[in-house]
Batch of 2 targets.
Target 1
Amino acid sequence: MAQAPTTPTLEQNPLREWLILPRSPDPSAMVIFGASGDLTARKLMPALYNLALNRYLPSGFTVVGAAVTPWSDEDFRKNMLDAVTKYSRTQPVDHQVWSSFAEGLFYLPMSFDDGEAYARLGACLEKIDRERGTGGNRVFYLATLPDFFPVIIKQIGAAKLHLESQRGTTAGAWSRVIVEKPFGHDLPSARELNDVLHTVFREPEVYRIDHYLGKETVQNTFVFRFANGIFEPIWNRRYVDHVQITVAEDIGIERRGAYYEKAGALRDIVQNHLMQLLSITAMEPPVNFDAETVRDEKVKVLKSIRPVLEQDVVRGQYGPGWVAGQPVKGYREEEHVAPDSIVETYVAMRLFVDNWRWAETPFYLRTGKRLPSRASEIAIQFKSAPHLPFQKTAVVGLTPNVLVMRIQPHEGTSLKIAAKIPGPVMRMRTVNMDFFYGSSFLIESPDAYERLILDCMLGDPTLFAREDEVERAWGLVDQIEAMWAKQPPPRFPNYAAGTWGPEEADALIERDGRRWRRP
Ligand code: BG6
């Protein structure tokens, strides 16, 4: 009988050494607003459970679930166990770990605008501080519909739940708030939300989540660029022909029609995930890895983006088609979507980063739903060799060097290089030099939420978006939205589900003599 694979020990695989944390988070309690919702079940609870499993959580760590659903503590524990059983990346659930973790799960039914409920929450947190030793440290996690964010923040402020002085506990206790996306729906609303946040929390206490920053491969981009000596000298306009950044999804909008109708691909992916990938790819080397230094450099990139011209953005919407051999509906036939919706499910654009390093080097960005496959990657396409001395040599599909950082799936990095085909004559073709996370490290990468929640507990906001980053990204999105508002309504749908987007997107890059990669 085949043996189930076991995780190698530290001795068997020294690369697992990273599993040991250099420092542990302080004991704390986390209040999850929206604890009966989908995000808590799919992402937050499995992430917390896996942190518990790897012994990263501090002793006494406690979660208070807060939501309108009238659950008891027992209901909450049961529902969360179901969620972890269904969605945890590690299976089966370790019941010993779960039972001790579940002792720290509590639930408070509440309406988010009810001031008295926050007084009850405060009393509950104080009791937890006394009984579970959480020391007055608090993480407030806003996992509700975005309309509730300002309501909850104001109520936390009014009940003074964030103030150490009100707790009568350990001096030096901290409060932090994690804000889920979408962070506003345009620049004015993002600014308004930032203003509300700052009436209660200081900027270093605000953790705006973009889960792409928690992905191992996105963080590896920092390491790849700044811990290797050989790439930085060629990471610029002299050697790079252009950059392609892709976030492609084969899924549709699933059951999120009501949200997506207000968001579209521009707000859902471009404003956050694509802008983050762009800034990490294009930023200058930071002098250190402190949160402020790293984010300063990222913001400089966003500030250098040239205003986008009309001909440099293409939008699309999928019609019916086939994905993975199955017929699928068009966007307009999805649940909670208007039959004449002009919301975009695809965006492609050409951007320029106007600075010394990147002047006139195009960055082509694209994202779409219902494309043929799920693939997120950053591809750096280098210029061709200036002269080929092999005039009489047979060349089989020789292409310029491309460095691809695969964010998902098949996480890793590959470099396309020219190589001689073995044999007595000189023939050449392009081959891949590949690094795969899975086979190199022999461990499964943690989920992005595990890393980000742990960072928040440790008080490290490096991988969270700062106020000015979010606002700059909205500035670009608003500029595009304003441009679209002046155009006649687009003729949607303009690509069939299961294809690589509208023809205009191909034209956008082909007019520069280049082509989209097929990830
Ligand atoms: C979310 C978007 O932020 O990212 C979703 O709202 C999208 O529409 C998801 O599907 C993609 O994330 P991932 O981690 O699956 O690439």
Target 2
Amino acid sequence: MTSSGPNRRRTAILISGRGSNMTALIEAARDPQYPADIVLVLSNRPEAAGLARATAAGIATAVIDHKLFGKDRAAFDQALDSVLAEHGIELVCLAGFMRVLTPWFVERWTGRMLNVHPSLLPAFRGLDTHRRALEAGVREHGCTVHFVVPELDAGPIIRQAALPVLPGDTEETLAARVLAQEHVIYPAALAQVASGKARLEGDHVVFAPEAQAGARTAARS
Ligand code: GAR
């Protein structure tokens, strides 16, 4: 169980699946010095494997099943917003949350909602990023943590990790190396935002001087 100290930002993680990035964030937040406290994990899919992981870690969970809302995205997002308010959430981390959010919701959380994406944005927005990177023959691939804006995978970048595409790489080997880097940069980016060392100003992220250094990491493998 994590504690909620006075200066730790109350953070919710939104998932749809296995939740390995969620787990990386929960692990980082076990440190009492970490500036965010993970107080809620919320899924739009009742069967998401990450929910059991969150419960095992002592974190409160909630499910808002998008299927119950049919095509009504606005009602789903309103339900989501209400649950976040009930838990006094200050920051939201999307971690494999495979639902497009309405502009209303995104604008309510502007500057307070982060996403991790498995490519070096602005390259390869959307799905199947590793397959498309291999098809394009890029020599470098990676992952990005960014603030969420209404346009999909388009928000201002907080942190990236780049790694070389190796001869013989498959979608699976590349995905595994990128995922390992996601687990490094997401906790680092959340720490920057929660501590106020990275913040959204208009269309750009403004960093405290000491935070700028790690904005882009080159991984060796
Ligand atoms: C991660 O690779 C994340 O970057 C990706 O889904 C995976 C979730 O894995 N997200 C997107 O593609 C969003 N556009 P996880 O559930 O193990 O964290």
